[in-house]
Design brief:
The protein is α+β, with helices and mostly antiparallel strands and about 450 residues long. Among the domains are: about 120 residues, no CATH class; about 190 residues, no CATH class. A hairpin with a 5-residue loop joins strand 7 and strand 8. The longest helix is centred in the middle third of the chain and has 20 residues.
C-alpha cells in the first residue's frame, strides 16, 4: 500500500494536524468520545476527523464508531469538507457530512475557532440484526456540539432571553437577569452571533453498507431492490426484489427495466472508443500478470502483443469489448451482447438520476478488472483487492491512476459517468422478458430517446 500512499492514491488530501493547539482540542474531543488520548504531536484527519495514525496507535481502526454504534465525528476546521472519508461503512456518509458542514459553515467556523466540534450521525435505527432491518434506515440525523457544550449553553441562554422578553415581570426578576448574565459569559452574544445549527436531517433513499458482507439498498427505482455481495446473507424482504452479485442476468434485467443503466456507446457525451480501449487494457494487464506473460513497459502496443500470445486463454471479455470498439470506430452491425456475455457490465454505465453513483459502484463489482471505475466508485473494494494483486499489476494500476486520474479527477469522472446526477427519476424501460428471468441485452439497456442507430430507441 506504500506505493498508493506515495502517489497520493491513499490517504490523500487529508488535513494535517501539527499545532499544539489543534492536538489539544482533538484530544479533548477524543477523550469525550473514547475516553482515550493520543500521544502523537502530528497526524492527519479525514472529513469525519478520523486519523489512520491514531487508529494504528489505539489498535482500533474504527475508533470513531465505538462499540459498533453510530458514527461519531470531530471537526477542528470547516476545511475538513474537502477531505476524503476513510472507513465509511455507509456510502452516503461523506455526502451527508459535507452537506452538514456546507449548510452550517459560518456557525461551525465560529465554533471551531474556540473549540473542537463533536458530533454523531444517527441512523435512527436501534438495532440492525438482520439485512431486513437496513430498510429502516431512511433518514440520517446529525447532532453536534463543542466539547465545552457551546451549542447547548447557547440554547439555554436563548430560552432565558425568551423568558425575559415574554414574562410580564421579566424586567424585575433579578434572579433571571443574573442567570442571563452568567450564561452570556459562557456563550457570548447569541443575539448578534446566534449559535443555531441548521439542516441536520438528511433523507437516504439509496445506500451501500458494509454490513452483512456488503448490501446495496436502492429504493428510488420504480422497482426497489436489495443486492447482496455475499449470497449467504441474502434474505427475502416483502415488497423488495432481492438479488446477489451472482444473479448477473437478473441484475441486468432489473437495470434495464428500471432504466438505471445504458451502453457507453449510447450515452450522450461519452467518447466511447477511448473508454472501451482502456477497459481492454485493464483486462489484458490482469490476464498477463496471472499467466506470467511479460508486458514490457505495459504500453498499449505491448499489451496487445501479450494478448496475442494468450491464445485460447485470452479473457472472454476482450471479444465483446473489441466488437463494440470496432462498432464505435467503424460502424457496421450492432454487436449482439447480452448479460450472459462477460463483457456486458464492462460496456454499460449508470444513467443520470438519484441512484447514479450507487449503480456505478454496483457495476464496478460486476466488472472487477475495470480498476479505474472501482477506484473512483468503490474505494473499500479497490483497496481490498489491491492487496491480492501481483506486484506488476499493482505497479501498472498505481502509475496509471497517478498519471491519468489524479491530474484531472472531475474531468475523468465527467468523461466516464457524465455530469452530476439530477434528482429526477429516469423513465422506465420496457421489461426485458419475464420477471427477472430473462437476459438483458445492450440494445434493451439503450432504450433512451433521441439515439439514432440500432439502439432500440
Amino acid at each position: 500500500m506504500e506505493r498508493l500512499i506515495e502517489k497520493g492514491l491513499m490517504f490523500g488530501n487529508l488535513i494535517r494536524v501539527n499545532s499544539g493547539a489543534w492536538v489539544s482540542l482533538y484530544n479533548r474531543a477524543l477523550k469525550k468520545i473514547t475516553g482515550k488520548e493520543t500521544a502523537q504531536a502530528e497526524f492527519h484527519i479525514d472529513l469525519s476527523g478520523y486519523s489512520p495514525e491514531i487508529g494504528d496507535e489505539l489498535g482500533d481502526m474504527d475508533y470513531l464508531r465505538p462499540d459498533g454504534g453510530n458514527r461519531q465525528f470531530i471537526l477542528l476546521t470547516t476545511e475538513q469538507k474537502t477531505a476524503p472519508m476513510l472507513n465509511a461503512d455507509l456510502s452516503v456518509l461523506r455526502d451527508v457530512l459535507q452537506g452538514f458542514i456546507a449548510e452550517n459553515e459560518s456557525q461551525l467556523f465560529s465554533l471551531t475557532a474556540r473549540d473542537a466540534v463533536v458530533g454523531e450521525v444517527d441512523d435512527q435505527v436501534w438495532q440492525v440484526s438482520s439485512p431486513a432491518d437496513l430498510l429502516n434506515i431512511s433518514r440520517l440525523s446529525i447532532s453536534a456540539d463543542t466539547t465545552g457544550n457551546h451549542v447547548a449553553e447557547a440554547d439555554q441562554l436563548t430560552a432565558l432571553i425568551d423568558r425575559f422578553r415574554n414574562e410580564p415581570d421579566g424586567w424585575y426578576d433579578d434572579v433571571l437577569i443574573a442567570r442571563m448574565i452568567e450564561q452570556a459569559q459562557k456563550t457570548g452574544d447569541v443575539l448578534r452571533h446566534p449559535v443555531d445549527l441548521q439542516h441536520t436531517e438528511f433523507e437516504v433513499p439509496d445506500f451501500w453498507t458494509s454490513d452483512f458482507g456488503g448490501v446495496y439498498v436502492i429504493r428510488s427505482a420504480r422497482e426497489p431492490a436489495m443486492i447482496f455481495a455475499d449470497p449467504a446473507q441474502q434474505v427475502d424482504v416483502p415488497g423488495k426484489l432481492t438479488l446477489t452479485l451472482d444473479d448477473r442476468n437478473k441484475i441486468a434485467a432489473w437495470l434495464a427495466r428500471n432504466a438505471l443503466a445504458e451502453p457507453i456507446i449510447a450515452a450522450r457525451g461519452a467518447d466511447a472508443a477511448p473508454i472501451l480501449r482502456q477497459k481492454i487494457d485493464f483486462i489484458l494487464v490482469d490476464a498477463a500478470t496471472r499467466l506470467g506473460i511479460d508486458t514490457g513497459n505495459a504500453s498499449r502496443a505491448e499489451l496487445r502483443r501479450a494478448g496475442a500470445r494468450m491464445g485460447n486463454q485470452l479473457p472472454p471479455e476482450i471479444r465483446g469489448l473489441a466488437a463494440l470498439l470496432r462498432y464505435a470506430e467503424q460502424g457496421g452491425d450492432w454487436p449482439v451482447i447480452d448479460s450472459g456475455d462477460p463483457a456486458y457490465f464492462y460496456a454499460v454505465r449508470a444513467t443520470p438520476g438519484p441512484a447514479r453513483d450507487l449503480v456505478n459502484r454496483l457495476l464496478s463489482e460486476l466488472s472487477p478488472d475495470d480498476v479505474r471505475q472501482m477506484f473512483i466508485t468503490h474505494k473499500p473494494l479497490f483497496y481490498r483487492l489491491y492487496q491480492t494483486w501481483d506486484d506488476k499489476k499493482r505497479e501498472y494500476v498505481a502509475n496509471f491512476l497517478a498519471r491519468e486520474y489524479q491530474i484531472d479527477k472531475q474531468g475523468t469522472r465527467d468523461a466516464l459517468f457524465g455530469g452530476e446526477p439530477g434528482m429526477t427519476e429516469p423513465a422506465s424501460a420496457p421489461a426485458a422478458g419475464p420477471w427477472g428471468a430473462s437476459r438483458a441485452s445492450l440494445s434493451e439497456a439503450a432504450a433512451v430517446p433521441d439515439i439514432k442507430g440500432p439502439w432500440g430507441g
